[in-house]
Design a protein that fits this description.
Blueprint (H helix, E strand, L loop, with lengths): L1 H8 L11 H13 L12 H12 L5 H19 L3 H7 L5 H29 L4 H14 L25 H4 L1 H19 L6 H14 L6 E2 L5 E7 L4 H4 L5 H12 L7 E3 L13 H14 L2 E9 L1 H7 L4 E9 L2 E6 L42 E3 L2 E7 L6 H8 L4 E6 L9 H16 L3 E5 L5 E3 L5 E4 L6 E7 L2 E2 L3 H5 L2 H29 L1
């Protein structure tokens, strides 16, 4: 095995006996296994091995070959890593199995282009070194937060949530954790290639993670903890939006909440009320009065029809939202980022023949994006920064919402992906957001995973999945700001840019001549 690995590491001119199909397949497999480094498997070492193999496969390759190796890796990464989409497309979208798999394959081909372009740029314009490969990796993870509206999933840094390297998160965010992971992965290849100098930076990064674990940015406020109850209704997705099931859904949540009145805060999940606020004013008034009578705050997910805005623009304006009411509590949050295929169907008019069962689902069509400058909820003497479902996958969005807050609260409905790795990966992102911003995260979901996550990103308590449940906790409000909350992603992005600039300056002597000689 060592002999074969050494052969893979040799320069291209010494690899003539190694057909291109071999590194192509290695790249495909290494991308496919990456997601097993994440929840629910937590085989973190794969987050080192997977990019290490890609880096090794790119050794000595020309840009065209690098593009196909990167595309192969990216396809494997997204086809396996995001296969949880199959449940929403096939089971709830009423799409046949073959077409569902084909749609995921097309998605993987498109998303795989990120890695393809990344590896092409790497071999075309930069010298072969971890100090250019890692910055490009981080840059392309960052682009996934905004290109095509963003699909920020499967980042290398998430594999180390609640693990040694996550101490970089409150300093510089998840992209910094990814940067360190990729440097260590590439350094492993260089060390096996007998470039032992890479032991030094690897050791320094590990020592840096150890040292960062002693830095404290936040501390609890000297006041009574907030008593919180999270309500998990466990409403099946195929029943959730049926007209004849709406009253029963409300009754389930009312019954589960009956013994929780008197707690400081009661939270219902995303779209736990499957009706627009304009359809049920009497119900909302009753809940508000009950909350005020018992001294509780009530936060719920609800589809919101902004009637005033609709009149102004001349068309219905619907929002996936959260609202707060009750004792000394108020607030309305409109979701800013919508999830494709899990919440709405891109080009739904063109795809109506593909996903017929989703066209009449109010949660899948017509939602608008909320404004970016929304205020946190006022819950008695506390400020709660809100995020709905998929939004917690966006580091900077959560960071902006978290500014000047005491707690973070998110509601979700992962019933679309029941029985897959999707909900667990989603929870892992919430943990990273809590760690980055130094705030407790309150997470209420329809089917799971409902949980309390502390300011260090640790799951303190969680409800069983796919069961009706009530989760209770007493949470301390936090004060202070992490470095990441203050500076956002700029430090790691600037460092990556500087390294790439240095690589660009170094490029003419190491890359251009090699490139021209191989064309």
């Amino acid at each position: 095995m060592r002999a074969y690995f050494d052969k893979l590491l040799k320069p291209l001119e010494q690899q003539k006996q190694l057909p291109f199909i071999i590194p192509f397949l290695i790249s495909l497999i290494s991308g496919a296994v990456f997601s097993f480094a994440l929840a629910p498997f937590h085989w973190w070492w794969l987050a080192i091995l997977s990019p290490a193999l890609l880096y090794a496969c790119l050794k000595g390759r020309n840009p065209k070959q690098a593009l196909f190796l990167g595309w192969s890796y990216g396809f494997g990464l997204w086809f396996v890593g995001a296969f949880w989409l199959y449940t929403s497309i096939h089971t709830y979208g009423d799409t046949n199995a073959v077409l569902s798999v084909l749609m995921i394959a097309i998605m993987a081909l498109v998303m795989g282009l990120f890695t393809a372009v990344q590896t092409w740029l790497y071999r075309r314009f930069f010298p072969e070194t971890p100090l250019t490969f890692a910055p490009l990796w981080v840059a392309f993870e960052w682009t996934k937060t905004w290109v095509f509206t963003g699909f920020p999933w499967l980042f290398a840094g998430y594999a180390f949530t609640e693990r040694f390297l996550d101490s970089y998160a409150p300093l510089f965010g998840v992209f910094a954790v990814s940067f360190v992971v990729i440097i260590l992965a590439c350094a492993l290849v260089e060390i096996l290639h007998r470039k032992l100098i890479w032991i030094i930076p690897s050791t320094l990064l590990l020592l840096g993670a150890w040292g960062a674990s002693f830095i404290t940015f936040v501390q609890p406020k000297a006041e009574k903890p907030l008593s919180v109850s999270l309500i998990q209704g466990n409403i099946p997705q195929d029943l959730k939006w049926l007209t004849e099931y709406q009253v029963k859904t409300l009754q389930i949540y009312v019954d589960l909440t009956r013994n929780e009145w008197g707690r400081d805060l009661i939270v219902w999940p995303e779209s736990s009320i499957p009706l627009f606020q304009s359809d049920i004013p009497d119900f909302l008034k009753m809940m508000d009065q009950r909350a005020k009578q018992t001294g509780s705050a009530w936060v719920t997910g609800i589809p919101y029809w902004d009637l005033k805005e609709s009149q102004q623009v001349g068309q219905p304006m619907y929002y996936n939202s959260m609202m707060a009411s009750g004792a000394d509590s108020s607030g309305l949050y409109k979701k800013q980022r919508l999830v494709p295929f899990g919440e709405y169907i891109p080009l739904s008019g063109l795809l109506s023949w593909v996903l017929p069962a989703l066209q009449n689902d109010p949660s899948m069509s017509g939602f608008s994006r909320g404004e970016s400058d929304q205020k946190p909820f006022k819950i008695k003497d506390h400020k709660l920064a809100a995020a709905v479902c998929y939004e917690v996958a966006y580091p900077n969005l959560t960071r902006r919402n978290a500014e000047n807050s005491d707690f973070l609260v998110t509601v979700s409905n992962d019933a679309w992906f029941t029985g897959t790795a999707g909900p667990q990966q989603h929870l892992q992102m919430v943990q990273m957001r809590a760690k980055e911003n130094g705030r407790w995260f309150i997470r209420a979901t329809n089917t799971g995973v409902t949980a309390f996550i502390d300011h260090n990103g640790h799951i303190v308590k969680q409800a069983p999945i796919d069961q009706k449940a009530v989760l209770r906790g007493d949470l301390p409000a936090m004060q202070g700001e992490t470095l990441y909350t203050r500076l956002s992603d700029w430090p790691i992005l600037i460092l990556s840019l500087l390294l790439l600039i240095v690589g660009w300056i170094y490029r003419p002597r190491k890359v251009d001549v090699s490139f021209k000689s191989r064309r």
